[in-house]
Amino acid sequence: APAATPAQEALDTLVVNTADAAALDTLAGSDVLVPVPDDATDEDVADPHAVALPVLDDPEGGQVVPVFTSELELAELLPTVSRYRLVPLAALASQWPSGDLDLIIDAASPHGLTLTSEGVRTLLVR
Fold it and tell me: Less Cβ crowding at N or C end of the chain, within 10 Å?
């Protein structure tokens, strides 16, 4: 298996302790893969200040945005996605929409982490 990235090691820590400040710092400073929605235009993809968030419906009725720490993680959950953007997680968090939108990192993995929209804004904005 490929060695865990610092972001993945941070996730392993956060699974055990979601308030681990060092792990949150590492995560916030990491680039994550943000799948590009199929309906996004080339302009959307090219604009560095506007990331079109892919939103999935959660089985429990909410909405989640999936991001990933590696291409492998992305392919496991969303094998049909062909495009993604690499975005610093803290930058993503700083422009997180208000409202009830959860962030899930590496959803298909044992170290998958879900943060509420409030958690994204409070834990990852640096």
Answer: N
Residue position matching structure tokens 């993995």? 109
Cβ atoms of 59 and 34 within 8 Å: the answer is no
Give every CB contact of residue 124 below 8 A, 6+ residues apart in sequence: 24, 27, 28, 89, 90, 92, 93, 115
For the chain, the residue count is: 126
Q: How far apart are CA 77 and CA 61, in angstroms?
A: 19
> DSSP for the chain?
-PPPPHHHHHHHHHHH-TT-HHHHHHHHTSEEEEEPPTT--HHHHH-TT------EE-TTS-EEEEEBSSHHHHHHH-TT---EEEEEHHHHHHTPPSSSEEEEESTTSTT-EEE-HHHIIIII--
- pLDDT tens for each residue of the chain, 126 residues long: 567 889 999 999 998 998 899 999 999 999 999 998 777 777 766 776 667 788 888 878 889 999 999 999 999 999 988 889 999 999 999 989 888 899 999 999 989 999 999 999 888 887
